[in-house]
Amino acid sequence: MSLRICILETDVLRPELVEQYQGYGRMFEQLFSRQPIAAEFRVYNVLNDEYPDDDQVFDAYLVTGSKADSFGDDPWIQKLKTFLLERYQRGDKLLGVCFGHQLLALLLGGKSERAHQGWGVGTHRYVMNAKAPWMSPQVEELTLLISHQDQVTRLPENATVIASSDFCPNAAYHIGDQVLCFQGHPEFIHDYSRALLELRQHNLGQEVYRKGIDSLAHEHQGSTVAEWMMRFVAHKPQGSSA
């Protein structure tokens, strides 16, 4: 039986990128189609006030990346936080990427803010800090494509760091068997990262831009993270009758 995943899309792509990439929801669908666990997806763009009906049942809710700040006070962000807190309190599984990673940390007692380290772009490497049954295949290091200037600077008290780097100490975390989040973008591909870098070249500055472009020579492990996410959703903790 397929897992049912609700994708809460928190952005609209730049006009120059829509024709080729459509949206983050579509990028996640393509990513998850390449991993071995059967899953089906429904995408809701919360910027457009799209949400699932109360009677719809999902195995997990995934919050995508966004240009917005997770600590912003936009009405749509406040509505999303209320929605996610309700799901957390009733025990639903939650997944977060970039903005979603930061928003869930903030919502559950941590802190997210503009990082003094500046922009992180291109391919980034993390050391692994923890292991779990759903982290299969295992890796010694984790490499992901990134694009962010905000970071989680304090995790919720009950969170466990999975992956970190000097640049981004709280790059991935989980909270028990219920929340799993990554600062990096498993759904990105090299061509999309390159297009973002080109569009943001002026804002990034030449040094950051050039390092980002050069780093795209390295592979990334987005497919591995996608498999971890689906295994996390499918995982039943010991003693669970669910």
Describe the structure.
- InterPro entries: ChyE-like, Class_I_gatase-like, GATASE.
- One of its GO terms (cellular component) is cytosol.
- This is Gamma-glutamyl peptidase 3.
- It holds the Pfam family GATase.
- Keywords: Hydrolase.
- It is a single chain.
- The chain has 242 residues and is an alpha/beta fold.
- It has one domain: Class I glutamine amidotransferase (GATase) domain (Rossmann fold).
- The protein is built from eight helices and eleven strands.
- Strands 2-1-3-4-11-10-9-6-7 form a nine-stranded mixed beta sheet, with helices on both faces. A two-stranded antiparallel ribbon has the order 5-8.
- A hairpin with a 3-residue loop joins strand 10 and strand 11.
- It starts with a strand and ends in an 8-residue tail after the last helix.
- The model has no long low-confidence stretch (mean pLDDT 94).
